[in-house]
Design a protein that fits this description.
Elements lengths: L3 H25 L11 H16 L3 H24 L1
């Protein structure tokens, strides 16, 4: 059985990145993106899950979690740039 917290971290970041990409596509087509916005709380939850997963992960999982954190940071930055 795999690391459940690691899986939750991957899912949380994937969901946020997916929402951001949908919002960017809709904005490009000049349709309101409000339904696809994610809140600071969503980002905080994803960051907390990543942090929690770090403590109980293998070296390979930690590397992947670091990549997920970078992806989350990029998503946050691109969202802030749009506002």
């Amino acid at each position: 059985m795999g690391n459940n917290i690691f899986q939750r971290a991957r899912e949380a970041v994937s969901n946020l990145v997916g929402k951001n990409e949908e919002g960017q596509h809709e904005q490009h087509e000049q349709i309101s993106q409000h339904n696809n916005d994610f809140s600071n709380e969503d980002v905080s939850v994803a960051q907390n899950i990543i942090s929690s997963a770090m403590a109980d992960s293998s070296d390979a999982e930690r590397q992947q979690l670091a990549e997920l954190q970078e992806e989350l940071d990029q998503t946050k930055s691109s969202t802030q740039d749009q506002q």
